[in-house]
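Async update (no meeting this week)

Hi team, since we skipped the sync, here's where things stand on the single-chain job. The sequence we agreed to prioritize is pasted below, unchanged from the tracker. I ran it this morning and attached the output directly underneath so nobody has to dig for it. Comments welcome in thread, and please keep replies under the output.
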Amino acid sequence: MDILLMGPPGAGKGTQGAILSEARGLPKFATGDLLRDAVKRKTPLGLKAKAVIEAGNLVSDDIILGIVREQLAKPEAAKGVIFDGVVRTIPQAEGVERLLAERGRRMEAVLFFDVTDEEILARLNKRRNIEQRADDDPAAVATRLKAYRQQTAPVLDWYEQRNLLRRIPAVGSVEEIAQRARRALEH
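Output:
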């Protein structure tokens, strides 16, 4: 089963992805983790990504899709994957659809973790204070939210047109949100 988790930065995709990954016995692929790993291992795509990231730019669709292709080829991905924020643009959605089709698979569900900007800012400020993450700086958060609204939000419509989108209210306890996600996958 292939499941995509979507939502703005700080919506809880990483937390809920880890819960779903463990519950379903599927690997979780997160864009940032995959990119950092490829850079660390100095793969050809990782070296390309590193140059783009160091220039302060967003990584292109072809690099993202190349990394997803590499990950889908791994044996542990044979039965499905939890994609954590991997798809951020319509070309990426189309590309992942093609990559899955090459393996005789399709996206089973897209869980959208819906949360207000006020909640996001509070969560990321708390995370910044705990984890000291530079990408949770208020200016960086504003940039990421703007990019999300411009590029990623239209992808929700793309998945909704394919009857794959399931909206999850992402407020409350971690367990309450996890229960909502489990229920959404039962339909």
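Quick observations from my side:
The chain is about 60% helix and 15% strand.
The first helix runs from residue 13 to 24.
Reply here if anything looks off.
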